[in-house]
Design a protein that fits this description.
245 residues; alpha/beta; TIM Barrel; 8-stranded parallel barrel; 12 helices; globular; binds phosphoenolpyruvate
């Protein structure tokens, strides 16, 4: 269960979140719990999560190791800051950062080289769904962003299916819609990396997941977890989501 904080919370608010959140998820051992705070809050989040099983990750990463890339953060820097996870290809990065599938592949590769677990996001826009292009978009995003990995690399990747029309809109995908997309992604994995990889890969659902809809979503066999934006900002609400896992 992953919480993407986007551009929310200061250092102080980060500390306050963990003070409330840690005891609420104490004793949860059956799933990974990861928070993706803004970069500047990572040290505070690491410190506040110390001694718990909660992990901290970066919301984005540059594909280079180091260099003249003003404003960017490398995978090695995230790893050195104690991160084990990183989001790659979030739709907001694709939209505002003009990220392509080729960028997603490079970022995923550099994350893996640094020992991070990338959560690679894919998902169709509303107009693409309405035009009946969901399958085509997911296949293209998989082909461009993930199929170029080796089997060994792919075994360390987590995928997040995030229909763009469901992110921050309150319009969660129905469990059936989500499950169809997850099955499609899993079949692409099976074609490229084989049946074992398709069975093993964790595919998270993201898009307006809330405490009151998460349980029904998680009943779907092909949904292995959730990537949560808005509802991860509140300790009580995110802890309820974690418990639903
Ligand atoms: C997200 O940011 O990845 C996300 C799914 O946001 P929300 O839960 O707010 O829709």
């Amino acid at each position: 269960m992953a919480g993407n904080w986007k551009m929310y919370k200061t250092v102080q608010q980060t500390i306050e979140f963990f003070q409330r959140f840690n005891p609420l998820v104490n004793g949860v051992h059956k799933c990974d719990v990861v928070i993706f705070p803004p970069f500047v809050n990572i040290p505070a989040a690491q410190c506040a999560a110390a001694g718990t099983e909660i992990k901290v990750g970066g919301q984005d990463v540059h594909w280079g190791k180091e260099g003249a890339y003003t404003g960017e953060i490398s995978a090695g820097m995230l790893a050195a800051a104690g991160c084990e996870w990183v989001l790659v290809g979030h739709s907001e990065r694709r939209l505002y950062g003009f990220e392509t599938d080729a960028d997603v592949l490079k970022k995923t590769q550099s994350s893996l080289e640094a020992g991070l677990t990338p959560v690679v996001c894919v998902g169709e826009k509303l107009e693409e769904r309405k035009a009946g292009k969901t399958e085509q978009i997911l296949v293209e995003q998989f082909a461009g962003g993930l199929a170029g990995l080796t089997e060994e690399q792919f075994s360390k990747v987590v995928i997040a299916y995030e229909p763009v029309w469901a992110i921050g809109t309150g319009h969660t995908a129905t469990p059936d819609i989500a499950a169809d997309a997850h099955r499609l992604i899993r079949s692409e994995v099976q074609k490229r990396f084989g049946s074992d990889a398709a069975e093993a890969v964790r595919i998270l659902y993201g898009g307006s997941v809330k405490p009151d809809n998460v349980e029904r979503l998680m009943l779907e066999q092909d949904l292995d977890g959730a990537l949560v934006g808005g509802a991860s900002l509140d300790a009580e609400s995110f802890s309820k989501i974690v418990h639903a896992a």
